């Protein structure tokens, strides 16, 4: 009968426990049920099934390449957001911002290094992940569409890296993008137009810088995130990671 | 396992094709046995994922402490670098462009992207899923390996062996 009777004293005494249980959604039950609930009761972990096949845990099978690509994306998103505090997409200021990162901002040079090397590593990791999926035949039915989504993610990774390449506005960036955009101009009939849309002009300048910046910090990351959501969701729907047929 | 009760405890229903025959004492075959060859995601999968995150994070920070990202002179549209190179992942394409702008710059990249996109619909051989370099897929494996090795060679040539004016320039010269 005392269930409805409560005192402030009890509330304070049970405060840590009550906060903890309200955040964690604890599940009473067997250890097995508690372990399953730890995964499906957590918004960040519920992308996982409660149970996974042993083959999915074999490091020699996946080499962890998809996961590594995703982690590199996270590192890039965080370090990139921090870099945005110090960067101005202006041909007058961009290069000075780089020098400030190097000599003025605390740990600025480390921050830029992390972003730069993670970007290179992500291109490599995504490509190697594609090789892993190919060599293990993991694109075969019912996973055909997830392979297609994966190729789109590879293209997103390349575009993200390519658009980011221009932002430091040094000689390396300027001439790499000039060379890269000139390749697009070789397409018949529409090549020149593609380059014009890409650069916002006929050569790399302020319009190109702002276009690449907006693509790099807003459009492409969002597109990549959406595709990643589909990619991970399809892994679950297609029956988890591929594995040899049961014997 | 032994039969506990032999008499019928539920009346038979003539409309049903099944009925409770007996209640036996003992564990079912599935008790203490995982369904299939599965393990619970927590902790087996999640801890491994966290370990990979630690390794990736430490590697990235270590490399970033040791090597500085390149930064050259400010961009100058009037003074081109020689050679001007695309980012390393496009240098293979740039190398192809130096042979033929249209074939190397447009046809080859388009062919690569299109064949990658349509790969699962072209290769309908169902064999060899879940095994590295499955014997049943020798042709597919060989074709893909040629593609990967060719890309690698083109990138190495473009990145390391091309000097001013895109001439072949051995790095030890």
Give the SSE layout.
The complex is a heterodimer of chains A (247) and B (173).
Chain A: H1 8-13, H2 15-24, H3 31-40, E1 51-53, H4 59-62, H5 65-84, H6 94-103, H7 108-135, H8 144-166, H9 171-184, H10 191-199, H11 206-237
Chain B: E1 2-3, E2 24-25, E3 38-40, H1 41-66, H2 88-99, H3 101-122, H4 138-161
Antiparallel strand pairs in B: 1-2
Helix pairs in contact in B: 2-3, 2-4
Transmembrane segments (chain A): 61-87, 117-135, 147-166, 172-191, 212-233
Keywords (chain A): Membrane, Transmembrane, Transmembrane helix
Organism (chain A): Geomonas propionica
What does this structure look like?
The complex is a heterodimer of chains A (247) and B (173). By secondary structure, chain A is mainly alpha-helical. In chain A, 67% of the residues lie in helices and 1% in strands. The model of chain A has no long low-confidence stretch (mean pLDDT 92). With 173 residues, chain B is mainly α. Chain B has a domain at 88-166. Helix content of chain B is 49%, strand content 4%. In chain B, strands 1-2 form a two-stranded antiparallel sheet. Chain B is elongated, with a radius of gyration of 31 Å. The termini of chain B are far apart. Chain B: This is Menaquinol oxidoreductase. Chain B: Its main location: membrane.
């Amino acid at each position: 009968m005392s269930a409805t009777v409560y005192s402030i004293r009890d509330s304070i005494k049970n405060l840590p426990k009550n906060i903890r249980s309200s955040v964690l959604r604890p599940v009473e039950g067997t250890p097995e049920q508690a372990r399953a609930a730890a995964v499906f009761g957590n918004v960040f972990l519920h992308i996982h099934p409660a149970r996974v096949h042993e083959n999915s845990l074999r490091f020699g099978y996946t080499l962890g390449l998809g996961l590594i690509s995703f982690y590199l994306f996270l590192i890039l998103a965080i370090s990139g957001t921090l870099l945005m505090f110090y960067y101005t997409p202006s041909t007058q200021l961009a290069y000075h911002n780089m020098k400030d990162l190097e000599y003025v901002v605390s740990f600025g040079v480390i921050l830029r290094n992390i972003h730069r090397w993670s970007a290179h590593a992500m291109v490599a990791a995504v490509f190697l992940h594609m090789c892993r999926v190919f060599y293990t035949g993991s694109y075969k039915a019912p996973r055909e569409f997830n392979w297609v989504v994966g190729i789109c993610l590879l293209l997103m990774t390349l575009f993200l890296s390519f658009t980011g390449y221009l932002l430091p506005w040094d000689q390396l960036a300027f001439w790499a993008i000039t060379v890269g955009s000139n390749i697009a101009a070789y397409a018949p009939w529409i090549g020149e137009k593609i380059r014009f849309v890409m650069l916002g002009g006929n050569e790399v300048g302020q319009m190109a810088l702002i276009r690449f910046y907006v693509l790099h910090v807003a459009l492409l990351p969002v597109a990549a995130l959406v595709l990643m959501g589909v990619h991970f969701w399809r892994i679950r729907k297609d029956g988890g990671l591929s594995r040899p047929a049961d014997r | 396992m032994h039969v506990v009760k032999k008499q019928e405890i539920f009346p038979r229903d003539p409309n049903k094709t099944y009925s409770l025959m007996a209640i036996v004492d003992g564990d079912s075959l599935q008790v203490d046995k995982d369904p299939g060859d599965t393990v619970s995601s927590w902790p087996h999968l999640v801890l491994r994922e966290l370990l990979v995150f630690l390794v990736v994070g430490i590697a990235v920070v270590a490399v970033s402490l040791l090597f500085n990202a390149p930064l050259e002179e400010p961009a100058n549209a009037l003074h081109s670098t020689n050679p001007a190179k695309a980012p390393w992942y496009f240098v293979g394409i740039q190398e192809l462009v130096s042979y033929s702008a249209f074939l190397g710059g447009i046809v080859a990249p388009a062919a690569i992207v299109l064949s990658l996109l349509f790969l699962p619909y072209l290769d309908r051989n169902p064999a060899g899923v879940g095994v590295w370099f499955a014997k049943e897929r020798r042709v597919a494996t060989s074709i893909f390996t040629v593609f990967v090795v060719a890309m690698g060679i083109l990138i190495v040539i473009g990145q390391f062996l091309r000097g001013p004016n895109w001439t072949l320039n051995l790095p030890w010269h």
